[in-house]
User: What shape does this take?
Amino acid sequence: MTNANAPSKLRIVSLGGVDEIGKNMTVFEYEDDIVVIDCGSIFPKEDLLGVDLVIPDVTYLVEKKKNVRGYLFTHGHEDHIGATPYILRQVPAPLYGTKLTLALVDIKLKEHRLGNIPMRVVQPRDEIQLGKFTAKFIHVSHSIAGACAIALTCPAGTVVITGDFKVDYTPIDGHVTDLATFAELGEKGVLAMLCESTNVERPGHTMSEMKIGSTFEKMFR
Assistant: This one.
């Protein structure tokens, strides 16, 4: 017998970024609410002559664009924001991200003469409500400032999307990955974690960017 009070299922649809480096874009759908995380592009391979840029196929979103509550960005690299102006023409919705990330997105929108797109700057640990979803931004260390993981919660549970990250205890900007918030989420219970895995097959760990500072000083003196 079906429980009428049971929460609906959360649907996660990857439009890019799985089994490839680039074109990151993931759709989260709960009932009639859709939230999209990242809108990345990828440079074409050698066999795609005449193609300048490859973006995700957003047919799924176009068919449900009235349900899209917003786009959330983990950081400002091209493989996470590069397709934004092309996709917004088809599926417009508000944009959310840190100050630097949205500044980089805004440059792209101006290049494409796209205006009147609502943008909201968020800070790490900010929570925003998007329909039945609550999104919490979590600071992570990366090779670009303003990078965040996102904890996306709906009645079905919480999904953690790490974005690109590294555990760097001596980052250049002094802001380490917010492991405390990750621990709190783990204690509460997480339905799923979508974890960035570029070069995960390589043994060892990534050195801190602080260590290369002396090398740059020698090169530029």
Q: What stands out?
A: The mean pLDDT is 92. The chain has one domain: 10-220. The radius of gyration is 18 Å. The first helix runs from residue 59 to 63.
